[in-house]
User: What shape does this take?
Amino acid sequence: MSFDFTGKRVIVCGGSKGIGRSVALGFAKAGAAVSICARGAEALAKTKAELGPKAHAASCDLADKDAVNGYVADAIKALGGVDILINNASGFGMTDTEEGWHSALNVDVLATFRASRAALEGLKATKGTIVNVSSISGYGSSTRGPAYAAVKALLINYTQSQASMFAPDGIRVNGVAPGSIEFPGGSWEKRRTEAPDLYNKTLASIPFNRMGTPEEVANVVLFLASPLAQWVTGQTVIVDGGQLLR
Assistant: This one.
């Protein structure tokens, strides 16, 4: 399926690597002007170059309220408006500790809230759309990453609340919940060698016997942001190759 986002302005929070990078590239290839942010300057510059001459990129600590508000304002100014906001960043706060919870709440939850609010007036003007990236971890308990799982569940619920709040302004809000996704430099590539037992156990839980790819998640994000999904809001689509079935 091909998408046409010619003339659309897209902001991807957490867009330099993995799923965020693939989402940004998908929109750019479909004709959109794209802005991305992340903390790592090297990956950010590399992805910006891949996005082409229409791209805008800025370093941003998404755990910092002022930084989030400033980045979104700058991105809207650089793009000339905003039609689509993708909230993809994660603090990967896995541990059941003060540090783990602080990271998970500040990035996964509060950055989503802050970026959405910062972009809201622009999205009202275009009757735009928001897509939040959660995880299948949000659908059950987790002893390995309790803080991460909890905030991903919160995002699924918050996506529903946003959809209800923003519908009167013509804004749709949806989410995706990816399963285990492998890409160069990502956590599952590292676990393949550093934690092979966990990697193989997880692989065995996926009916297709492989990890997902960032592009497979990006395709669903693009669909949800497209006119093909114009009557879809408040939904979080599981993109896991059937991993939750087992």
